[in-house]
Amino acid sequence: MKAIVLNNIEDNYRLAVEEVPTPVASEGDVVVKLKAAALNRRDVMIASGSYPGTEVPKIIGSDGAGEVVAVGDGVADVSVGDEIIINPGLNWGDNPKVKSADFTILGMPYDGTFAEFVKIPVENVYPKPQHLTWEEAAALPLSGLTGYRALITKGKVQANENVFIPGAGGGVATYLIQFAKALGANVYVSSSQQEKLDFALKLGAQAGVNYKDADWENELLNQSQGIDLTIDSIGGESFKSFINIGKLGSRIVSFGATRGPVPNLLLPTMTLKEMTLLGSTMGSPDDFKDMIDLVEQHQIKPVIGARYNLDETPKALEALSNGENFGKIVIRISE
Ligand SMILES: NC(=O)c1ccc[n+]([C@@H]2O[C@H](COP(=O)([O-])OP(=O)(O)OC[C@H]3O[C@@H](n4cnc5c(N)ncnc54)[C@H](OP(=O)(O)O)[C@@H]3O)[C@@H](O)[C@H]2O)c1
């Protein structure tokens, strides 16, 4: 089969389109013929050598959707021909509150979805939501799951709360906007581009600010009168603003740090405001199932910013790295 293989972690984007053996289903696994895959920031980090535990050679890619073409011994509930999406979180374990020490994500160290076929444990496949195309289904898993756990399981968003989602153009952010809106929250966003802010408003955001403007914090406070819940994946210098815009008793959920570590954390301000800071990582199998239920109930559609063919995956990773798109970047694999 054709696959995108990472061969060298010393050199940025040393990815090759290669012919490799098609996986065979072992006990408890299924083999899926992928229709589409999707990119995540993790893939950029792996391909650029900045992801801990990276091994080579490896097929990268966490997100995918397709048709089951083989089942291993002991697989009872899934059959050849089933149309499925993949939960890329492997070995979460039994505790919904926290992942096990064996938790890992498809695409490193296990061969991933930037390929014509992928092998995956049967418990990680779920029926494809009927209202989604293959490309939309492939764009849902990792970002949808991460957004669901951060906003709902951890953030416990409530109707009529003011929710702030910085970086509206991000892959996870486009789900956060739609999930928060579906649950009746007032959604505020920030972005680097007016075009992306306009798109966020169309998705359901109430108002937005450009984080490149020096006065964005005050502008957001004027718009919202204060934030109840910020879902942060930015970190860095921006984090102190997330504390400043928070109401008394408000919450911040952190699931990433695109801008790196937070300098000079204003703990006294958090203390005096009685704020809560929560960490969140991807999600449990229950989160994944509940996320799909929410998406089906509200007929939520993933936002796809760009499409590439499998051979063009390195180009797609560069586009993600440059922040060119709004929403998810999809890789088309088969008809
Ligand atoms: N813990 C987990 O399980 C988990 C899962 C998924 C992702 N993550 C992490 O979460 C982060 C976001 O992931 P993603 O896939 O959504 O990434 P992404 O699609 O690459 O989005 C990143 C976005 O960050 C925004 N941004 C950059 N600098 C900013 C700033 N100073 N202020 C506000 N926004 C800023 C940009 O928004 P605009 O384009 O609108 O300007 C950019 O589009 C990454 O760091 C990723 O590693 C963690």
From TrEMBL:
User: Domain Enoyl reductase (ER) spans what residues?
Assistant: 10-331
| SMART domains linked to this entry | PKS_ER (SM00829)
The record, for InterPro entries, names: ADH-like_C, ADH-like_N, ER, GroES-like_sf, NAD(P)-bd_dom_sf, Zinc_ADH-like
Gene3D superfamilies given for it?
Answer: Medium-chain alcohol dehydrogenases, catalytic domain
* SUPFAM superfamilies reported in the protein's UniProt record: GroES-like, NAD(P)-binding Rossmann-fold domains
Q: Which PANTHER family match?
A: DEHYDROGENASE, PUTATIVE (AFU_ORTHOLOGUE AFUA_2G13270)-RELATED, PTHR45033
Know the name of this protein? Alcohol dehydrogenase
From what organism does this protein derive? Staphylococcus gallinarum
